[in-house]
Design goal:
The complex is a heterodimer of chains A (220) and B (198). Chain A is of the alpha+beta class and 220 residues long. Chain A has a single domain, classed as Immunoglobulin-like, CATH 2.60.40. Chain A has three helices and eleven strands. In chain A, the strands form two sheets. A six-stranded mixed beta sheet of chain A has the order 10-3-6-8-7-11. Chain A has a five-stranded antiparallel beta sheet with strand order 1-2-9-4-5. In chain A, a hairpin with a 2-residue loop joins strand 7 and strand 8. Chain B contains three helices and ten strands; from the N terminus they run αββαβββββββαβ. Chain B has two domains: 37 residues; 156 residues, Sandwich (Jelly Rolls). Chain B starts with a helix and ends with a strand. In chain B, helix 1 crosses helix 2. In chain B, the strands form two sheets. Chain B has a six-stranded antiparallel beta sheet with strand order 1-2-3-9-5-6, with no helix packed on it. Chain B has a four-stranded mixed beta sheet with strand order 8-7-4-10, with no helix packed on it. Chain B is elongated, with a radius of gyration of 23 Å. In chain B, strand 1 and strand 2 form a beta hairpin. Helices cover 24% and strands 29% of the residues of chain B. The chains are: A alpha+beta (220), B alpha+beta (198). Chains A and B meet through helix 1, strand 4 and strand 5 of A and helix 1, helix 2, strand 5, strand 6 and strand 9 of B.
Chain lengths: 220, 198
Amino acid sequence: MKLRDFAFWTLVVLLGALAVHAGLAVWLPRRIMAGLFEQAAALGAENTFVLLPSGKEPEFLRPLPQGTRAGLCLIRPGDQAVEIRAPLDGGYWSIAAYGPDGSVVFALDDRHALGREMRMIFAHAAAGSDMTNTGLRTATIRGDSLFIPMATQTVLAVVKVHAPYPGMEPRLLNTLRQTQCRRIPLPAFLQGTGKQKLSSSEERMKRTFAVPLPRERPGQ
Amino acid sequence: MGQAERGRKVLSELVRITIALVLSALLGVTSLYTLSGTDGLGAVESGVWRSWKNPADPDSWPYARLHFLLQDRLPPSRFLSTVFIAESDDEGRVLSAACVYRLTGRLPPTRWWSLNIEAVDDDAHMQSAASLSSEDAMILPDGSVSVAISRLFQSGNWLPTPREGHFRIILSLHGISPLLRERLNTLTMPRIIREGCS
């Protein structure tokens, strides 16, 4: 083989390898996450909060420390919205929502909760007409809820609660059982014709307190 | 050019294309698994411990995320917890269930932490309760911890290992401050000392 041919074929192999590498790097996480979404759906977690029995959590949630309980909700709002209501009653509480590529699109813990109950509304980003300025990683406070726009059709919410001491576990378990995940009609602020529709960016600034995800807050 | 010679040339080109495709696929798959299956790009080392600053961020390199996903695990959100993994002792020897180890030292300041033992081999049988958290652990007066890691029960802080094979230690720091998270490689992590093997 001539040197020129060798260089040509080497370049072809390298470019091909780069294409395979990049393609797999994009495809593989989505493939694995699709499998995890299926597992969550099989557990009955589609738009429903499922508290997982202790010690029988799916592999993808492990390792869970002793005293930690977990629950799942596979959020698929379609053209509606999905609401998660989680009462807080002590303990270390957290929620993380995973997108189809395995990245966390939203995360929150009890330190940053707005009160004794967390109310989150997930809806597809195309559902509301006044959502163009809200990105995937921006949650906005609307009334008593935290609104999380979704750029994808499905996210997997993982709720974890850790009891700081064993005596607290029954109480936390009872609280965790009250956590709800359900489909609801689009709230008025997401409907273009709703009274709360914002007409200008100035009004939007007045009425919408946009907060970046807590994980991006400075000075923590 | 005869028909036979033209046929040979076409065949030769087909062979080259096939070889190029196979090599491309092999190189592409191998490089991806190497980058994500081991430490992955963006891994931070602190002694024998390795961690990732932002494995689950949407705009981060995909390798750290893949590292977790390839093990069928969800990557931790950096806002919630930072995970450190150790697979060898301080002298670089792979952690083995046949040995007794002591994890000793101060843990980075955090809201709470948990230590888990995980078998490297899928078929290794884990003993129950292979976890310890900051609330359960006995903390020494100087703020450090000393945890025995062994197959058989030991008094004080104890983490059971699998009955056989190799294992890894997973330290999760929950609610670590962003300032510390940015300096993961400068954190003083606990040591893992091998005390003996059977």
